[in-house]
Sequence to fold (311 residues):
Amino acid sequence: MTTLVEQGHRFGGAWTELKLDAVHYYLGFFTTVLRTMPFELWYIDAFAGSGSRIEMRETGGLLDGTPIETSSEQMAGSVMRALSVDPPFGRHVFIEGNASRFRELETLRSEYPAKRIECRHGDANTELRSILSSPPWSGPVRERSKLRAVVFLDPYGMNVAWDTLRMLAATRAIDVWYLFPLQAVTRQLSVDLNRVDAYKQDRLDDIFGTSDWRDELYDTRVVTDLFAETISTATRNVTQAQIEEYSRTRLRTLFRYVSEPLPLIADGRGRLFSLFCLSNSSSDRAIDLIEKGVRATLKKFGPASRHRSGR
Ligand SMILES: C[S@@+](CC[C@H](N)C(=O)[O-])C[C@H]1O[C@@H](n2cnc3c(N)ncnc32)[C@H](O)[C@@H]1O
Fold:
């Protein structure tokens, strides 16, 4: 028997649950630690989806001695999980670029009349800029200093602009969970730099916030060909692990704290993403607390992640 779900947001797999479990666990830590402090706590989901996601599951088969069945299950996405955090956030902002997912978010919002929820339809980078350049985030210091937030950047691919990260870091009041698209970036970094077209090079400039990756990740040589012409070759000299380390180094130019990554691995598709927590708080005490929360998160969810990677 096959149950087909025509509607709903289908994406991810077991690694998605791991990612959402990890972020949800940290959100609970964040609101618990800050609940007695005089802050207004915001949760901003910049790639919010529809609120939930559909996972297809296959059961049965030869080993079970039963026919293969495919069924679908509706799982809570990052938005529904954030709405269940206890103690709760004071403000929720959900940004989504897709029109039908945005409509689902609006419906979800109406189901939580007691919560302060704003749904914004548009590009994540543009909407984040608009939020941070409007009151209360752009208000006088005495107002801004009462704000603390967690921003979740959960794109499909290379959608987060470096300027967005710079803007988030500049607030010094926002913890960012960033799903860095390691596999997509590695794929764009062809072994031969000449094969990375101008568009892809621009995208990589924007992901790394610099054009220096050409020198850092490629060996350039000038050679003479058969016709005595000199040609320049640039060959990628780094592994995916080194690309991840380079990305981490780049993030450290914006944020005082860049966590160890939580590797996210999909069956048969290898390492897809690296989940980082970032903070640029100017308070050492706050950074210590964030580090404590992230350490607990990685301790809880790192083993499952390593198990999937076979490490
Ligand atoms: C991986 S899904 C996010 C899933 C969501 N966090 C959840 O757990 O349910 C990425 C979402 O970002 C949206 N999206 C992609 N690019 C976007 C952009 N530039 N601005 C806003 N939303 C975007 C997609 O429509 C999709 O719903």
Remarks:
- The longest strand covers residues 66-76.
- Residues 1-6 have pLDDT under 50 and may be disordered.
